[in-house]
TrEMBL record:
The organism of origin for this protein: Gallus gallus
Example GO BP: fatty acid metabolic process
Domain START: 396-554
Compositional bias (Low complexity): 17-28
UniProt enzyme class: hydrolase
Keywords for this protein: Cytoplasm, Fatty acid metabolism, Hydrolase, Lipid metabolism, Mitochondrion, Phosphoprotein, Repeat, Serine esterase, Transit peptide
Any one Gene Ontology molecular-function term assigned to this protein's record: thiolester hydrolase activity
Protein name: Acyl-coenzyme A thioesterase 11
Pfam families, sorted: 4HBT, START
Length: 586
């Protein structure tokens, strides 16, 4: 991952040793402005455009990389290199004469790597129109002399937005660390059933006719002062050969719509020759995937070619009205060509699933997300991120307090969320272990009758079938199918997290014996206050069928919430000694 790589990257001029002090002074002068924030505005000129008079995606990637690196170096106080760039989805094209506005700031610093969030929009100077282009996340590594790792200082978020991004950055980092294994697992599950597509009347093009190979010599303008090639420059060269390959298929000018994660496997320096290869892996009805890889070798060819980077880019061809055109079909070569063809189909499914999971609006019905083993990493990410986002909200209001239990509410649009918290004489790790097993929930929560473990997905995720008591407004008991996702703290100050959300399983369809309930976002956060004391908080974004019960407790007409949480405290205190004994036996 980022912290373990010496990667190709971009950088600004070297920073002095007191850069951190200067940045804090600057922040004070700007009235609390985020000291890592960088804003870049570029007027799109003809030299930046393609044959359609639109900003080339390669040039945009170079600007994105530069702005992100400048932000990273503001926090690190030393040179930084690009380790990876997450998936990017381009919403619009940008024309000559318009202005590209890029805002980048560090979301979170880990040991020697940091996540930078980038927002890109365009501005039409004549009409005053502003429009979002894309949002991206890049990982940068701080480097000291001779490429040594630099330990980064923590970043303290200030605004609600920054706190949300800081919290969810840990989840995105977790996905990056398992990205390679996830893709491998998903492809293994998917490729065996992929069939060659057939379309009546479609032109058929052999994939080999789209193959492109190009070489670039890395010169000083392409590299930073340490001699490492700019990450953005490599991305731009890759986009160039990918566009040529796509054009050879459709005999038209394609538009880049999406890029799957760039991951830099190693550095390249001034004097290296970079060999860039591209080929259309698969063409669907309205889009095509182009695979690109980059290899490096030096002048003497003293070592074999080094694999620098691989990426997969999705292109479309637009008609005069901006609608995607139907594309020719691709016929892959036997062997590796057929493998790439099937893998492209699997990746398309992954992208569609992931886009649905991440963009699913809370107002959409049903609230439950279909469970898919091939997309488990992203479903788990969405589950935990939703809870972390709720936790980081700033407008929680204390609605009720009874002895040691506090109830807070958060009113947003159509949703009422509540939080119940108290301090308990138990270590955070013990509370986390006891609360994360839904099979024991009935021991303290009278609303639960039982919970059956349906599937242990992995060490951190499990699916339960939960049976609950009948609410006063219901004629029969409820049941739920719930994904429970656990997370230990990523760094000091983070809570232990147990997140819950409803999923649908073919093996557990709704039954006439129960009313199928759904939970949109709920779970526990446990913060250590000392070695033997923890703050335990339960969060829930109330769904409509649960709303009347929630408001009755919030306004004090019922004490069920308080009684349940007090029972939870007794459960934790009663079982912590047994838990310690079991751990010692292990």
């Amino acid at each position: 991952m980022a912290a373990g790589l010496q990667c190709a990257g971009s950088t600004s001029p070297p920073c002095t040793q007191d850069a951190g002090e200067q940045q804090e002074e600057a922040a004070g002068a700007m009235g609390g402005h985020n000291p890592t924030e960088v804003q870049m505005s570029q007027l799109v000129l003809p030299c930046h455009s393609n044959q359609r008079g639109e900003l080339s995606a390669g040039q945009l990637l170079k600007w994105i990389d530069t702005a992100a690196c400048l932000s990273a170096e503001r926090h690190a106080g030393c040179p930084c290199v690009t380790a990876s760039m997450d998936d990017i989805y381009f919403e619009h094209t940008i024309s000559v004469g318009q202005v590209v506005n890029i805002k980048a700031k560090v979301n979170r610093a880990f040991n020697s790597s940091m996540e930078v969030g980038i927002q890109v929009s365009y501005e039409d100077l004549c009409s005053g129109k502003h429009c979002s282009i894309c949002k991206a996340y890049a990982t940068f590594v701080a480097q000291g002399p001779l490429g040594t790792k630099v330990k980064l200082k923590p970043l303290t978020p200030q605004t609600e937005e920054e706190k949300i991004e800081h919290s969810i950055a840990a989840e995105r980092r977790r996905m990056r660390l398992v990205h390679k294994d996830t893709i491998k697992d998903l492809l293994t599950r998917s490729t065996s059933n992929t069939e060659m597509e057939t379309r009546d009347g479609s032109v058929v093009v052999p994939a080999e006719k789209t193959r492109v190979e190009s070489v670039e010599l890395v010169l000083p303008p392409h590299a930073n002062h340490q001699g490492n090639t700019f990450g953005g420059q490599i991305m731009a060269w890759m986009e160039n050969v990918a566009t040529i390959a796509a054009s050879r298929l459709c005999h038209a000018h394609p538009t880049l719509r999406a890029i799957e994660m760039f991951h830099f496997r190693g550095p390249s320096q001034v004097g290296d020759r970079l060999v860039l290869k591209a080929i259309v892996n698969n063409a669907f009805k309205n889009s095509m995937e182009v695979g690109v890889c980059t290899e490096a070798y030096d002048q003497e060819m003293s070592v074999s070619r080094r694999h620098i980077n691989s990426a997969f880019m999705t292109f479309v061809v637009l008609d005069e009205e901006g609608r995607p055109r139907t594309l020719p079909m691709v016929v892959p070569q036997p062997g590796d060509g057929e493998r790439r063809y099937r893998e492209a189909s699997a990746r398309k499914k992954i992208r569609l699933d992931r886009k649905y999971v991440v963009s699913c609006k809370q107002t959409e019905v049903p609230l439950s997300v279909p469970w898919d083993q091939s997309n488990k990493v992203y479903l788990s990410y969405n589950n935990v991120s939703a809870l972390k986002t709720l936790v980081a909200k700033a407008n929680w209001v204390l609605a009720r307090e009874k002895e040691k239990v506090q109830i807070y509410t958060l009113e947003e649009d159509k949703f009422l969320s509540f939080r119940i918290e108290m301090s308990v004489h138990i270590s955070a790790s013990q509370a986390f272990s006891l609360l994360s097993d839904l099979r024991r929930r009935h021991e303290w929560d009278s609303h639960y009758e039982s919970a059956e473990l349906v599937q242990q997905v992995d060490e951190d995720d499990a699916i339960y079938h939960v049976l609950s008591q009948t609410l006063s407004c219901e004629n029969k008991p409820q049941d739920f199918v719930i994904l429970a996702s656990r997370r230990k703290p990523c760094s000091r100050g983070d809570p232990y997290v147990v997140a819950f959300r409803s999923v649908t399983l073919p093996t557990h369809p709704p039954s006439t014996n129960y009313t199928r309930g759904e939970t949109l976002c709920s779970g526990f956060c446990v913060w250590p206050q000392s070695e033997e004391m923890s703050k335990v908080a339960y969060y829930n974004q109330a769904t409509p069928g649960y709303l009347n019960y929630v408001t009755t407790n919030v306004v004090g007409l019922s004490s069920n919430f308080c009684a349940t949480f007090e029972a939870c405290e007794k459960f934790l205190l009663k079982n912590k000694d047994d838990l310690i004994a079991r751990l010692q036996d292990l």
